[in-house]
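During the second half of the funding period, the structural biology subgroup turned its attention to how the target accommodates small molecules. The most pressing case was glutamic acid, which had performed well in the primary screen but for which no bound structure existed. We therefore specified the complex as follows and requested a full 3D prediction, including the ligand pose.
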Amino acid sequence: MQKPSASQIDTESGLGYIGRFAPSPTGPLHFGSLLAALASFLDARANQGKWLMRVEDLDPPREPAGSAELILQQLLDLGMDWDDEVLYQSSRLEAYEEVLHKLQDESLCYPCDCTRPQIREMGLVYNGSCRERGAPPEMPYALRLKTDALEIGFDDEIQGHFAQQLEVEVGDFVIRRKDELFAYQLAVVVDDELQNITHVVRGWDLLDSTPRQIYLQRVLNYRPMSYAHIPIIVDERGQKLSKQAFAPSIETDRASDAIYKALTFLGQAPPAELEKESAEAQLQWAIASWDIRAVAKVGSLPLN
Ligand code: GLU
């Protein structure tokens, strides 16, 4: 089955297809992150695109030493090799700082020292109460981006149309945290632009971050891109498999078992005779037959 032809966006940007996998190195690759890696890899390769690697190492306290190297080695052992140099977000702090200054100069963001309990009292959507304060609060404070009430919608390649009114549903959001670390939302947008990403394929848990990212792209005058959110994998209690929840690491000495199972979860219906083939042969089959429309249009799938 053929994937639908490349979207408007590629044609407009003239970049062709550039995809990426952007793991946070909080532990080894597990089945949930393998699915995101594999889906983004297959979508890129099936579209004769590039597949770039970005290590989102912006939160050192949550990153056990060696996790990034381990994830990269696991991907190579599984037969998924990326193009170009790996981009480490820890090497990009100056670039984020620069963008932050630009936003500050344009009065598009502001300091906020509201606490979690205060925000909980607001009903979890930040009500913008620090917007109009005069002098900045005492350190530590976060920086929040001003949002507006315009609806931001996009057509997700898997999940369909999704829209949010940021000011109402999300509130002004943090772009630099109280602990002075850059927030994911800022870094991801700056680096998707730097790496000329045209297609983002990732887990459904980030679907509702996407309007924030599109908003930030617009504020910064960056290119738009296309998005596809695959279901996340949940355990028997309905919790996302995650490194924090100690999901088991992918065993790459059984690479073909992992790939075959992941293809099944991605709705690709690999033929039974492929199960005993090498991971390499499975990936070749999967690139040739990749159909993003076969991925389940749901937020999560149970592991068992
Ligand atoms: N670093 C994020 C994660 O590991 C993914 C970010 C993205 O794909 O935009 O969950």
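Two results from this model are relevant to the next phase. The chain has one domain: 12-302. The mean pLDDT is 93.
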